[in-house]
Design brief:
The chain has nine helices and no strands. About 0% of the residues are buried.
């Protein structure tokens, strides 16, 4: 059976359906298939973007917390920049400023009183007397100190003599007596025996 015969069969079985006009129940917009590939690609791209965790945009930490204050400060700066100068000065103010300051400071300068330290003869003589008294006191104290040192040195020497043993004094006196009893000849013999000519020449 060919295709036409099959169609004839169902037309005979369903005459109402066969009497309906033959139209396509589906319709598409104009140029649908022309733009279809680009629409599919953009849908795939958007789906990939949704799946990504990193969307490509980053903001500093605390950006939204500080955003309101930053905007308000920027607005305040812009409003002040657009305003005219809030402070005004009189004409030629800075030209006259130096002269007005000098006139207020120099003219009202109080006169200082000068008092001489040596204005009277009494002060001269009093200061000279004080100087002489101080000098004499210093000299007197210095002499008393020297006398005390000399006396203490004498006492120390005397104490040392008392501390020396009698045997030591006797031995010392015996040695000096034997040394004085030696003749010149004995001294020369002693030197020649114990010293060389080089030692004698170097010692001389």
């Amino acid at each position: 059976m060919n295709k036409r015969e099959e169609n004839m069969e169902w037309e005979l079985e369903a005459p109402y359906l066969a009497s309906l006009p033959k139209t396509t129940p589906f319709s598409v917009p104009d140029n649908y298939f022309k733009h279809f590939p680009s629409q599919v690609e953009s849908a795939i791209f958007l789906e990939d973007l949704v799946k990504k965790e990193d969307l490509g945009f980053s903001i500093p930490t605390g950006y939204f917390e500080d955003l309101a204050s930053n905007i308000e400060s920027r607005i305040a700066v812009d409003t002040f920049a657009n305003k005219e100068a809030a402070f005004t000065t009189p004409d030629n103010y800075f030209d006259k400023l130096n002269a007005s300051i000098l006139s207020k400071t120099i003219e009202n300068k109080p006169k200082t009183k000068v008092r001489r330290l040596w204005g009277s003869d009494f002060m001269k003589y009093a200061s000279a007397a004080c100087f002489i008294i101080l000098s004499a006191t210093g000299l007197y104290l210095n002499q008393q100190n020297n006398l005390k040192l000399e006396r203490s040195a004498e006492l120390v020497n005397e104490q040392m003599l008392y501390d020396i043993d009698e045997n030591v004094i006797i031995e010392h006196l015996n040695e000096t007596q034997t040394a004085s009893n030696l003749s010149n000849a004995e001294m020369e013999n002693y030197i020649l025996e114990n010293y060389t000519s080089n030692d004698i020449s170097t010692n001389l």
